[in-house]
Design goal:
mainly alpha, Arc Repressor Mutant, subunit A, 9 helices, about 0% strand
Amino acid sequence: MGGEAWKKFLAGDDKSFAVLYHAYFSELFAYALKLGFDKETCKDAIQDLFFKIYISKNNLAHIRNIEFYLIRSLKNRLFDMHNDEHKIQEIDYQDIFVENEKNIVEQIIDEEKEMQLKHVISYLLQNLPPRQRKIVHYRYQFNLSYAEIGEIMHLSPDAVKKNLYRALKKMKDTSTTNSSYFLTYLFTILG
């Protein structure tokens, strides 16, 4: 039915255009919904498609498979509509490049500082007695309370606090002048 109506429409029979529209609307609408578009967008795209077909019928004589043409054209129209709605404003790519370059440099510096900080902390922790090292580990790696640490290590919460204070003081005293920046950062984190 659609093929005959298509031939008649191309031959100049405008009534066949309405037959085409009604013959394919439901199929095209279901296809558009399946692509994930809302009902109104689907209807608008189908209307646009048939309007374009009507005004450019003289240029469509080469179309033999109308079903394929309609589905492909509808899909293209839907994606064009989607892109128009989400069109990105003109971007200055030089600004993006400079911004990304700054971010990369900052990231490299941050990673280098973090690596140096880890080395300093590792060195300082190695100089602590095992009990104090465990307390620092439980407090800052597992975020345990003084009471929880005390329960694990069979100490009172006050004893845990004192040992933690001594450990942090020893770490601070052991630090060298070169690592003072990192220790300042460390003790800011540790509180």
